[in-house]
TrEMBL record:
The keyword Oxidoreductase applies. Belongs to the Gfo/Idh/MocA family. It catalyses: D-xylose + NADP(+) = D-xylono-1,5-lactone + NADPH + H(+); (1R,2R)-1,2-dihydrobenzene-1,2-diol + NADP(+) = catechol + NADPH + H(+). Homodimer. Pfam families: GFO_IDH_MocA, GFO_IDH_MocA_C3. This is Trans-1,2-dihydrobenzene-1,2-diol dehydrogenase. Residues 172-285 form the GFO/IDH/MocA-like oxidoreductase domain. Residues 41-162 form the Gfo/Idh/MocA-like oxidoreductase N-terminal domain. SUPFAM superfamilies: Glyceraldehyde-3-phosphate dehydrogenase-like, C-terminal domain, NAD(P)-binding Rossmann-fold domains. One of its GO terms (molecular function) is D-xylose 1-dehydrogenase (NADP+) activity.
Amino acid sequence: MLSLSPLCGQLSDKLLHPPEENRQKEQHLSAASLQEFKMALRWGICSAGKISHDFIVALKTLPAVDHKVAAIASRDLKRSEEYAKQHNIPKAYGSYEELAEDPDIDVVYVGSVHTQHHALVLLFLRAKKNVLCEKPMGMNAAEVWDMVQVAKENNVFLMEGFWTRFFPVSEQIRTLLSKKDLGDLRVLRAQLGFRMDDIPRLVDKKLGGGVILDLGCYLIQFASMIFGPEKPQSITASGFLLESGADETVGIVLNYSGNRQAVLNCTMMIDLPGEALIGGTDGIIKIPNHMNSPTVMFLKGKRWEWPLPTSPEPLFFEHDIGLRYEAEHVRLCLLKGLKESPIMPLHESEIIATISDEARRQVGVIYEQDRVQCINQSESRK
């Protein structure tokens, strides 16, 4: 069993030992101050892809007095204009720089491919824009750390879009765990799989392809929500690679303090139900399916369900109407003047990325962004 180590040497303390001011406990974000907010939150959409479409549709299920899509940008102006026409968006841009310069944007949703996240998030942060970035926020922990620092330097809000955290099922789980309803936690078992090996983006390493960054990060963040946000004491990962070198099936074991263990499996080769089991000395929580976007859970014979609202338009991905939960959470954070989420804090994004890095290293997946980081570290030591 190998201990946690990053791709380029010893794990930096700045990733795993966050400053005391960032050790925020989860807060209940009340809507009590909403009456002071006179305008809808003005969203800018970065990238006119499938996930951006679904995010826009999800916003339509929230009150129009609270959320408004004010602009959309992509490198293809025609595509931006098509999305703007389809969704009644006032402005369409053919460059991301134009969106960054728009003074009428409160927060930007970054829904581009993984490899573009770092540069685009930095662009918007430096333009003093609040940012919600799709997961994974960075290709590696170094990119995530870089974004976090720039957000702090510019005094703006930044959050990684792990939508799972904001579903009512996840909120209920956190409540039950805080009340010790499961007793002492011991085991988490979770799996997630979709047949996706025919999707070019997911098998091409140059585009950030691989199952760890696409699905495994959901499992890792779930383990961090249950057992963290402390780092695991050790990580063991093994799996299989495609001919392209991207990871297609991976198993990860995370051992935490107090003899707590998470066993995680992800694959892009078959469809799995997405089941998760959280075991404690006094009970077991079961999520029967869709653990990354859960609507049903069981505990001690009791069944909880929070059905998703009906989508007003067709979606590209199942359950994506649930993106509404993270969008509303961002609005409440901004109303309170927060610069990061107490439910998905930035230091936890750094830890999740570091775990992903180590899992990839053990499986044998190295991206160009990792090599660039190693070169930069070597140059800085000269």
